[in-house]
Amino acid sequence: MNISALVRNDLPDLIAMRHQLHANPELGLEEEWTSDFVARELAMLGYEVHRGLARTGVVGTLRNGSSTRAIGLRADMDALPIQEETGLDYASKKPGLMHACGHDGHVTMLLGAARAIAERRNFDGTVHLIFQPAEENAGGALLMVEEGLFERFPCDAIFALHNEPALPFGQFALREGPIMAAVDEARIIVQGRGGHGAEPESTIDPVVASAAIVMALQTIVSRNIDPMDQAVVTVGAIHGGSASNIIPERVELVVGIRSFGSAARDHLEKRITEIARLQAESYGCRAMIDYFRSYDATINHKAETDYLREVAIRFAGRENVADLEHPFMGSEDFAYMLNARPGSYFFLGSRVTPDDKPLHHPGYDFNDDIIPLGVAFWTELVEDYLKPR
Ligand code: ZN
């Protein structure tokens, strides 16, 4: 059977599967039920199933023919700590937890492809289907890589997709080089000396020093970063004080930092640290800074992105394949898989109306209408990459 007929036959079942996954969300590294579900399905289809990488990670491997070439496709499995407000009949059964990023759809599309690939067996080489935990917070991709993912399952190229309700339905959006940002966080405690609000001369006011730090941080992107580079410095939280007649002991600032490229990332850390410390000192305060490096930037490899573009154009038509002019400022731990192996990460647009809820919104739901596109594309990509030669 050809791919599209196969996917059409399977679609009602895949939609039911997606709704079942949606109703049973699990947080990063706790995807026990989801992991069992994925492993059972892969085993039933005849895949070798490997479990335990990054606790709940699953890898399904299928070999055919004699070629030593191998391709890896990744889906993420985790949900978010959000109270669902969709009112759907298959809404989350767990209070305060929901699949608000469509990872239920990513799992479904990769399992759908697992079926089509196994049924057609129209490839020469090895397929590794990688189901990773904890994309949202704990960096499940990095854990899997550190625990030997690619030593145990060597891949010549790896690919991953994310649904994107901000992009037109059915659009494949790609980009060579940076596609998602690196994300870091700084926690700054500005320590002063508290006292009576009516006697500021006998205190060291950390509120005034913090205000100066917030303003001075705004100069980093405009004055210290190459105008051709992109970066964000956001003071997302400021905590301190309790009443108008009290000068507090200390104020806490929480800063979110996004960047691409390691030079800019290092420079941001250096300037944020210097500005916080020296501004605080100029007001007689002391700044204590904890700087956490979170996900690396997601950088797509050229050859694999060119290849992906070519397959996508053949699959969806030129008008449905877009090269993104700018990367997204969000982040993605597939970055670490791309640091280890060549590959490419792309978006599949799912927007139907301009009112579609964005990712991470309590009213968001994965658009089931892109399931056949995702399943057929993954299958096509595998069969093309592992074409018998
Ligand atoms: Zn996501």
Q: Which descriptors would you attach to this protein?
A:
10 helices; 2 domains; 26% strand; four-stranded antiparallel β-sheet; eight-stranded mixed β-sheet; Alpha-Beta Plaits; binds zinc ion; alpha/beta; Aminopeptidase; 389 residues
Task: Provide an overview of this structure.
The structure is a single chain. The chain has 389 residues and is of the alpha/beta class. Helix content is 36%, strand content 26%. The chain is built from ten helices and 16 strands. Helix 3 (103-120) links the parallel strand 3 and strand 4 (125-132). Zinc ion binds at residues 101, 103, 135, 162. The site of zinc ion (ZN) has 4 residues, from loops.
Summed up:
The protein is an alpha/beta fold. It has helices spanning 3-23, 32-44, 103-120, 140-146, 149-152, 206-224, 262-282, 302-316, 334-340, 371-385; strands at residues 48-51, 58-64, 70-76, 125-132, 157-168, 172-174, 177-180, 182-191, 195-196, 231-240, 246-247, 250-259, 286-293, 298-300, 321-323, 343-351.
SSE class:
alpha/beta
Please describe the biggest sheet, giving its number of strands, its sense, and whether it closes into a barrel. Answer: 8 strands, mixed
Can you give the mean pLDDT? 97
**What is the count of structural domains?**
2
Our count of helices gives: 10
Q: Please write the CATH class name of the largest domain.
A: Alpha Beta
The CATH homologous superfamily of the largest domain is termed Zn peptidases
Helix content: 25-40%
Strand content: 25-35%
